[in-house]
């Protein structure tokens, strides 16, 4: 079916994005756009995690790991300098195929590295592979065990990027070039590109939303929700529950990796703080605040809370705030903050009028 | 009587030291209703789970249309044409009744992740058909007016009917019903037996685990009696009612 109805909010958000641009421009606050752009890329992780947690009903405490895999892969491939081996036949072949690019870094050094689009593809491929290898054994686990296993995965990625020279250890990787898309459009964090990147990021988010909305309203989406609500019944109705959970795990890892790769190009750098378990917990907290099985809630909260965090509103208590949010949501609003409160729930709190 | 649709051969499953199902061989003929009865703990539900693939047997074989399906996973068995209901109704509580039945169309439809994410036109027709089919089945079982209701809001008896509808949506050749009359009142049970007969008359073979003797004796073509995991008797209801072994199990030694 066409289901045009599900796309109306997409148009509404698109309109809001334009209005926000106008408001920011009129008030002279266009520098906010930088943090909004960054928040939008974080929101991609949250949207993917929402599919996994809210719809397929599987938790992951390792999504910062997939974000980091996306980010670090593009960072390594676009900054590795092949100049010293440029005369070897293999490099010559890659160059003649147009897979390499010659550019100058901030210090004017000549750098020969992989094309950003190639690095991006490699990052996605690597993410799928790692998600598959991790997912194959781990997705059989349930509840706490799945949480712990994905937590372990996140820790491995964190210690790897922190320990390995290739990943710059504690310094991370900087000097990542811009990612040219089409024409003069590029994922680039410098001030002259601020406005176009604001729109690039929102197009990415809204595209992710359209894909996700389509999915949850499809046959597969129904199957995922059924697995969440009664796995045994879903299995007995011909749904290959293991395969569907695994596929969703890989898909949500891909969303995280896209966010990581694009944000790394935008920031021009990535560091180990992006791979911490605290970040993974933050993503889970945001999905919970959004209402678990609420894609719009996850997206809005993903942009909003990350924006506040990046603006430094939470000060040095940043991580504590997200911890508190998680606890608060679980106790007071397990349905999320954006669920329209039922009138009855409100009125039931009022003292009953006794009938004489 | 037709040929055997389902057959088990020397099926065996124990849990710890308990032999839940012990060397059970039986046949379910196409187009019949077969009931499995026996005291609590006789191994009836285990036998069901062995057939449906939720439990794997330690020995023995399950054949469906003469094809071994012994180690198959439940989803593959469902796709082959065996559907089931559960002793404690397992609906998808937060979905509507209609959606519950639509999930039942899963093994007869094909759109995958990519087609779904891109909302390809080829999925539209399939989705429309899924909806139409679900609506037809609901109307057939008298549930049309509950289509948009959230499943968990329905009464117990209606939830069970929805589970029936959902199982029928998979277009099964064999329907496994695990204590369908449990928790139903006498009128609902009568309605249920009419429904099961109607399903059978449409060519769906039924295998029923049941405690309610009146239901079993009224509608089944054949009865299998289990006690402590073993087959005690098998035959038409009239013969089972006279069987001294069966009477002893149900009423004690004095009556045999």
Q: Could you give the order of the helices and strands of chain A?
A: HHHHEEHHEEHHHHHHHH
Oligomer designation: heterodimer
Number of strands of chain A: 4
Summed over residues and divided by their number, the pLDDT of chain B gives a mean of 91
Write out the strand line-up for the largest beta sheet of chain B, numbering strands in chain order: 6-7-8-3-9-10
Helix coverage percent of chain B: 25-40%
User: What is the name of the CATH architecture of chain A?
Assistant: Orthogonal Bundle
Rg of chain A (C-alpha, Å)? 22 Å
CATH topology of the largest domain in chain B: Rossmann fold
Number of helices of chain B: 10
**Which stretches of chain A of 5+ consecutive residues score pLDDT under 50?**
350-356
Which residues of chain B sit in consecutive blocks of at least 5 with pLDDT less than 50?
A: none
From the coordinates shown, what is the CATH architecture of the largest domain in chain B? 3-Layer(aba) Sandwich
Cα(first) to Cα(last) distance of chain B is 31 Å
Largest sheet of chain B: 6 strands, mixed
Tell me the number of strands of chain B. 10
Contiguous helical run count of chain A = 14
Strand-residue fraction of chain A?
under 5%
Largest interface: A-B, 29 and 41 residues
What structural class is derived from the secondary structure elements of chain A? mainly alpha
């Amino acid at each position: 079916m066409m289901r045009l109805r599900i796309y109306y909010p997409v148009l509404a958000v698109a309109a809001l994005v334009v209005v926000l641009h106008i408001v920011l421009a009129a008030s002279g606050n266009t520098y906010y756009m930088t943090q909004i752009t960054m928040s939008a890329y974080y929101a991609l992780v949250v949207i993917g995690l929402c599919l996994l947690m809210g719809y397929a009903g599987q938790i992951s405490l390792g999504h910062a790991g997939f974000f980091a895999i996306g980010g670090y892969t593009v960072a390594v491939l676009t900054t590795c300098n092949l100049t010293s081996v440029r005369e070897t036949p293999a490099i010559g072949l890659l160059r003649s195929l147009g897979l390499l690019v010659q550019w100058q870094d901030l210090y004017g050094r000549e750098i020969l590295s992989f094309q950003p689009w190639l690095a991006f593809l490699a990052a996605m491929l690597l993410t799928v592979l790692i998600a598959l290898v991790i997912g194959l054994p781990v997705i059989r686990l349930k509840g706490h065990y799945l949480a712990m296993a994905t937590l372990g995965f996140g820790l491995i990625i964190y210690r790897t990027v922190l320990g390995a020279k290739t990943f710059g250890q504690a310094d991370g990787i900087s000097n990542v070039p811009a990612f040219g898309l089409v024409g003069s459009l590029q994922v680039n964090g410098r001030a002259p590109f601020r406005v176009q990147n604001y729109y690039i990021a929102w197009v990415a988010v809204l595209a992710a939303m359209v894909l996700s909305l389509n999915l949850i309203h499809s046959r597969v989406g129904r199957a995922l929700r059924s697995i969440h609500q009664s796995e045994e019944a879903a299995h007995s109705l011909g749904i290959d529950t293991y395969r569907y959970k695994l596929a969703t795990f890989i898909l949500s890892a891909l969303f995280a990796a896209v966010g990581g790769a694009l944000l790394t190009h935008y920031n021009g750098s990535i560091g180990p703080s992006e791979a911490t378990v605290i970040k993974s917990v933050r993503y889970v907290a945001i999905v919970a605040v959004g209402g678990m099985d609420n894609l719009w809630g996850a997206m809005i909260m993903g942009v909003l809370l990350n924006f506040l965090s990046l603006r430094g509103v939470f000060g040095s208590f940043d991580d504590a705030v997200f911890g508190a949010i998680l606890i608060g949501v679980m106790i007071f609003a397990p349905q999320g903050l954006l669920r329209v409160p039922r009138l009855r729930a409100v009125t039931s709190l009022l003292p009953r009028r006794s009938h004489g | 009587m037709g040929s055997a649709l389902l057959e088990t051969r020397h099926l065996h499953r124990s849990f710890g030291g308990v032999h839940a199902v012990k060397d059970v061989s039986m046949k379910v003929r196409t187009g019949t209703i077969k009931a499995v009865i026996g005291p609590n703990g006789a191994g009836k539900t285990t036998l069901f789970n062995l057939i449906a693939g939720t439990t794997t047997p330690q020995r023995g074989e399950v054949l469906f249309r003469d094809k071994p399906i012994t180690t198959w996973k439940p989803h593959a068995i469902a796709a082959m044409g065996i559907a089931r209901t559960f002793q404690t109704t397992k609906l998808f509580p937060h979905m509507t009744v209609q959606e519950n039945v639509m999930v039942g169309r899963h093994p007869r439809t094909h759109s995958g992740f990519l087609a779904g994410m891109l909302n390809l036109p080829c999925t539209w027709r399939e989705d429309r058909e899924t909806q139409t089919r679900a609506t037809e089945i609901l109307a057939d079982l008298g549930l049309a007016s509950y289509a948009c209701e959230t499943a968990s809001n329905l009464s117990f008896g209606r939830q069970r009917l929805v589970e029936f509808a959902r199982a029928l949506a998979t277009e099964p050749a064999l329907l496994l019903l695990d204590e369908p009359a449990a928790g139903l009142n006498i009128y609902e049970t009568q309605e249920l037996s009419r429904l099961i007969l109607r399903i059978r008359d449409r060519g769906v073979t039924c295998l029923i685990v049941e405690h309610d003797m009146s239901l079993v004796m009224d509608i089944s073509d054949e009865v299998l009696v289990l006690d402590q995991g073993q087959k005690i008797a098998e035959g038409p209801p009239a013969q089972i009612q006279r069987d001294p072994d069966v009477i002893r199990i149900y009423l004690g030694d004095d009556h045999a």
